Known about the structure:
- By secondary structure, this protein is α+β, with helices and mostly antiparallel strands.
- It contains 20 helices and 22 strands.
- The strands form 6 sheets. It has a 5-stranded mixed beta sheet, with helices on one face. It has a 4-stranded antiparallel beta sheet with strand order 1-2-8-5, with helices on one face. A 4-stranded antiparallel beta sheet has the order 11-12-15-14.
- The longest helix has about 30 residues, at about 330-360.
- It is elongated.
- The protein starts with a helix and ends with a helix.
Amino acid sequence: MxxxxxxxxxxxxxxxxxxxxxxSLDLPAQEQPIRIELxxxxxxxxxxxxxxxxxxxxxxxxxxxxKNPGEMGFKPEIELTLPEGFSFSAFEWPKPNFFxxxxxxxxxxxxxxxxxxTPAPGKGFEGVEMGVKVTGLTCSSLLCQPFxxxxxxxxxxxxxxxxxxxxxxxHLPKTLSNLSVKAEEGEALVTLxxxxxxxxxxxxxxxxxIAHPLCIALSQDHMLFRLPSVTSSPLEGExxxxxxxxxxxxxxxKEWDESFTLTYSLKKEAPPVLESLSASIPTVSYPKFxxxxxxxxxxxxxxxxxxxxxxxISFKILSFVKMQGATRRVSMLHGIAxxxxxxxSFWLLAGxxxxxxxxxxxxxxxxxxxxxxxxxxxxAVLLIFGLSLFGVFxxxxxxxxxxxxxxxxxxxxxxxxxxxxxxxxxVATPCTGPFLGTAVGFAVTLxxxxxxxxxxxxxxxxxxxxxxxxxxxQCLRFLPKPGNWMIAFKEMMGFLILATVxxxxxxxxxxxxxxxxxxxxxxxxxxxxxxxxxxTWGKPIQKRLVRFTVGYGLGFASLVVGAVCLFQxxxxxxxxMGVEERGxxxxxxxxxxxxxxxxxxxxxxxxxxxxxxxxxxxxICQTNLISLQSDAVLRQFKxxxxxxxxxxWTKSDxxxxxxxxxxxxxxxxxxxxxxxxxxxEALILPQVLTPEIVLDYLSLxx
Length: 702
């Protein structure tokens, strides 16, 4: 019931949120949630510069973005029109805030961006006219609204607001001598001397795209920061620049914030300076760590609703039917076995993921499906399971013997429940779903023990619906009484399994070539033959000689031949024969292949472009492709001159993995839209798309 409610509410929430967003674009000016004005200091003597600022005032629950907006949004753009001979400096930004949930950096309430205006030689400001144009995006927890305001002002001594300028200056980051930095290859150890205790420290990089402010370790006066990666990143030179926001506490428990500008080198130093120093700092949990645990659990629950988990749902439903009438103790044992299978699989995947990344390999969530051998093996296991559901052979007796055939009847099949949990995780990992991508991307930036906690909570979230139904078997009383319908139901589940096998074959074909695919189909033939031989001549009613020589011997030999063919299909010798160049046709031809050089060129030219991070093994990606290639969306892409780029992650690609990390992601799908223009920031679209949502984001470039 809980899954059905989520399945109904999730698309409805997407519909109403996108509808509200579209309607918000036509709000009258007096109802807009943001007000903008120009404030300036007391007018100086002729020839002297003037401190002025563009002040933003937002309604409650609304915010704007910092110069680095984080995972979504884009910064305000300000244009000043001054008389000839007048000039202004680059704007100074106050310290940012982190908006949890939105994964964004910005301001709420009010914020003032300051600049120094220099007059023409010998000129003053009184009576001088200046034009101001401000464009940007303001968002609440429910919707976002682009804004554009243009106005003119005349400098008047009576309208000067020096108190607001002084308040704005107080929020600017400072540069202090008691701040020292030691860095090596993406890590920085910051020491802030003083009597006060450092309670919290967050670093907001200006020139590095991340989803969360950084801080992985903290002590009395030491702070350790680690960037996710420094290879293949859009950094300017070899420096990381940003703002350090420190929360201090005195002996009486009073707290206050201080902010500092921080710049450190990303070039590896010799000898290493951090290994011994960082080891002396006690590792503490990230300030938002518990929020990340909540989103990880929620992401695991929602993972059960994703399309790639369809065969997993069939496993569960079939288990529910078989457990109908069982005691609560038996159903609890099965629930625990299934949950443990999920957890063990998540621990194994997390361990491999963190180990590969520790040795510099660019891998992400679902990385195992980039390996043809794993895809082929998973398809073979599902094929054998599907044949069992069609009655070609009975798997139950064999599994029961593996689990301990002499145990009590109620305990038989516990290994099958455990194996279902393992298989559920293997099939489910191609999906990221809401909250999951952010949780995984955040986890890989943490120390290993904290990352494993997040992966464990993620597994608990995925297993929780099954475990709850196993703990309360009375919920199964709504099912019909056992009868012939169970046979038909089991065979229907078999067709769902075969549909998944077809999908995995398609993934395998995208990763290999036609020769490898043909050899894999031969392997499937021998697997099917072995299952049929075992089911026909391996039954207990057959004579012992026939059962062991034909049923077991010949059946096992067929499975061995199938396994050999499967390994050959994914062998380097066959893969080296070359993947056939199959030219894309139709709408697929509109998408350019991913190239970092091409992206850099488009940024320099200020052209709009859209990046689709996808993979053949990601079913959500394939579903979203229907929206991306709808007539209305393609027509809008063409009208705006948007360059379409497909970052295909079906096979492992280090450049794509690094770009995903820059946006705090470790999995696909991810959709980035660059509206074009110099300095424009990328807009991150939701993970579940409709044509209306895509059109709404495209409208922001107008």
